[in-house]
Design a protein that fits this description.
Its main location: nucleus. It comes from Microdochium bolleyi. It is found in: Nucleus. This is Transcription factor domain-containing protein. By secondary structure, the protein is mostly helical. It has a domain at 1-120. It is built from 13 helices and two strands, in the order ααααββααααααααα. Strands 1-2 form a two-stranded antiparallel ribbon. β1 and β2 (156-157) form a beta hairpin. It is globular and about 60 Å long. The termini are far apart. 34% of the residues are buried.
Amino acid sequence: FLPSTPGGMSQGKIDILDLSVADWTTISQRWAEQASEQALGRADRPCLEVVQACQVLAMFWFAKGETKRTNVHTAIAYRASRLLHLDDVSKTGWSAHKELGLGCFWACWLTRCASQENSRFPGDCWAEVAGRPLPVDADGVATISHPCYLDQKGGIVYPDRESNVGFSSVLILVQGLWWEVQDFARSIHGSRGTPSDWALQYCILDKKLEDLPIQLPGWDWGLAGRGMTSPTPEEPGRMFSLGYLFELCNLYLHSSVVPVFSCLRQTRILSQPMLQLAAERAWEHSLKLTAMTEHYLSRQAPISKLWPMIGYGAYVCAAVQLRRCLALRLLDEQRLGRARVHLQFIGGLMRYWTTLRPLHEDMERQFTQAQVL
């Protein structure tokens, strides 16, 4: 969409001497404005390049805090991917181009699952992708002729005993569960359903999260949570983000039913024993996320490669810890100091994701109020 032409930075050519004096914020903004104009201008003639451009631009505008522009680009990318049947490689057989298209489709689906504000699925997220082949990682040994796929409930179906899944497939499973957990929390806060409905759905989601490691026998969640793969470290930021997201699903589910954690209007949607257990499990998962964060920071690994959702997770984790300690009158300097690692974490991520700034400011206020109390 932006062909390089000779003539300096404004035309696309950048001299090595320009690197130290260039205002990259201004340059990237200008490039993104032009790319958005051209990509959206071609949205009525969907093609793979339009899908790719809209996905990349959505990430850029999200980093800038432009949520409306983000939603427009993600909606167009996903709709175009469905119109182009990028998720159906069986129509004309396998090819490298088809595999690329399938990867783009899954990227669009993952983006929609990231936030309930941008999901707009007719039913649930799994119904949109049931039976579609899962992507194969670049170093994977599976072929498109025998891919793994998902059923109507998000369970993974293996074509044979020797099939295995890579990072991309695990990410799809976890991201879909994240969408389900968000949908559950919204149903409670929006009073969609009855307490018995919520209790049943809570148990179903808890079971799905508990069973996920069983579905993935070759996947080591302990190593993933520490930002490593077995047997050697590989892309620690990516692996840490995936392990963190899985723990965040658990934390978000259990904290969503505890009024003191989630500020629910309903005084109780679970029995007292279940409510106490949910509170304890939310606390345990928050401590696990704290330990993961401390370990990652101690390795001095780059946080610029972490997903923006990690910043949101840090916010949720800190809120749960502060509210629990205040409610039980257990807050002291030691607990407050350890919880501050999440403030440090989101402060670093905020440099790359402007969208996290309001969460960082609110977290600072919560810590200030906690110190006063």
